[in-house]
Amino acid sequence: MTTLADPVPGGRPEDLRRVAALTADLAARGVRGIVLAYVDTAGVCRVKTVPTARLAAAVSWGVGMSPVFDTFLAHDSIVTTDVLGSPDGDLRLYPDLDQLVTLAGQPGWAWAPVDRITQEGARHPGCARTFLRRIVADAAERHGLAFKAAIEVEWSLGLGSAPAGEFVPAVSGPAYGAIRQVELSDYTADLLTAFAAQDVPVDQLHPEYAPGQFEISVGALDPVAAADRSVLVRQTVRAVAQRHGLRVSFSPAVSAEGVGNGGHLHVSCWRGGVNLHAGGERRYGMTAGAESFTAGILARLPALTAVTAPSPASSLRLKPSQWAGVFTAWGRETRETALRVITGTAGRRDQDANLEVKPVDLAANPYLALGCVIAAGLDGLAGALELPEETTGDPARYGPDEAAALGVRRLPRSLPEAVEEFRADEVLRAALGPVLADAVTAVRLGEAAAVEGLDDARVAAAYRWVY
């Protein structure tokens, strides 16, 4: 359970009461160190680690980390804004003990996500986890809403023995095929064992479309915990793969051609314990609120791509007719639309109905992606936006006039295009706040400049092993 409370210098009382017993328990289980993890604006997971014996100190006073990482690019170059990118200053990383997990795939280690505050104890305006927590808390206070969310994780498995920088698929066989499952049976069984040991419920684990590609779906949680879980899932997938001599890429495009790795978001709105996406009088059982929430996200999809598809490699994945959802359209169980309304199976709809946001990949910071998607939906809810006509089939079949009449647009094809949409979107920028919004803009334009002049193959190679 997420406490929805900011850390404070000296430690939160509830954390201080339990940290000694927790430290003793971790040590008894052979845990020697704690990974303190957060995701930067570029979508890269950055960490510091402390010995287990120092957990109490980290809970009380945090661990130092420069704020410069808010404007790091994926390849560790640094861009600047008016307040970020300087070598000056320090922040404190505070682990969330509610989410601390002993890592089954990395014996001797535990893992915890962190919040970042200033040395004076104020919230750091560039902390994505704090941003998402504030969005969720505000929705509860203003609208009486809660959310359930989950993030699908797709990855490509390469041979660890392949030449440096190259991707050689670790498994053969057709998409979704039994051959892949058999060839990597030991790896996937160990992966399931690790997730069970970490209390991560797995809904599905299966071969995917592209060569060497797999996907895992895990249980839904509140948005902050869901973003935490996404980071933990990737840590575990990578660690278990390494023990099998395999290498993992979560890049949106492992190669210039073919289907890339997605990170689809699933989200549902709840009020008073009732799912607003089921049992209503609107289309497919949605309530008026769920329709307006969906309409708000649909209206801001072009700007959202600056957050949900933030890498130069993302543009290689966002291609029509590859189930990436590259058009501003929605449909029930329509995998080519950017928004897929999932009703669930009869008998489970009150629990399972949700909205899938498809133009999302794992270069996205999950806290920023979920926070911005929810902010867009809340704006639609507040304005009682009407959801337009549903799209069935592949929107790529529409001619220009028909697409325009239906309001179906192609999403931005490049980061500069996405930034232009983002800069014009007052709702998303206001939700993020000026410091974080400017960091998003600076990092995206920095990534675009870093690959200027590169062909698609070189862009894919440049980001293949970054995420």
Shape from CA axes? Answer: globular
Task: State the low-pLDDT regions, or none.
Answer: none
Mean pLDDT: 95
The beta-strand count equals 16
Helix amount: 25-40%
Write down the Rg: 21 Å
- Derived structural class: alpha+beta
Total number of helical segments? 16
What is the strand content?
Answer: 15-25%
Our measurement of the CA-to-CA distance between the termini, rounded to an integer number of angstroms, reads: 27 Å
Largest sheet entry: 6 strands, mixed
Topology:
Blueprint: H1 13-28, E1 33-39, E2 45-51, H2 55-61, E3 63-65, E4 91-95, E5 101-102, E6 109-118, H3 128-143, E7 146-151, E8 153-159, H4 178-183, H5 185-197, E9 202-207, E10 213-218, H6 223-243, E11 246-249, E12 265-271, E13 274-275, H7 288-299, H8 301-308, H9 314-317, E14 330-332, E15 339-342, H10 349-352, E16 354-357, H11 366-382, H12 400-406, H13 415-423, H14 426-432, H15 434-450, H16 456-463
Parallel strand pairs: 1-6, 14-15
Antiparallel strand pairs: 1-2, 3-4, 4-6, 5-6, 7-12, 8-10, 8-11, 9-10, 12-13, 12-16, 15-16
Descriptive terms for the model:
467 residues; alpha+beta; six-stranded mixed sheet; 16 helices; 16 strands
Short description:
It contains 16 helices and 16 strands. It has 467 residues and is of the alpha+beta class. Strands 1, 2, 3, 4, 5 and 6 form a 6-stranded mixed beta sheet that branches. Strands 7, 12, 13, 14, 15 and 16 form a 6-stranded mixed beta sheet that branches. A 4-stranded antiparallel beta sheet has the order 9-10-8-11.
Please explain how this structure is put together:
This protein is α+β, with helices and mostly antiparallel strands. The radius of gyration is 21 Å and the shape is globular. The mean pLDDT is 95. Helix 7 crosses helix 11, helix 8 crosses helix 13 and helix 14 crosses helix 15. It is built from 16 helices and 16 strands.
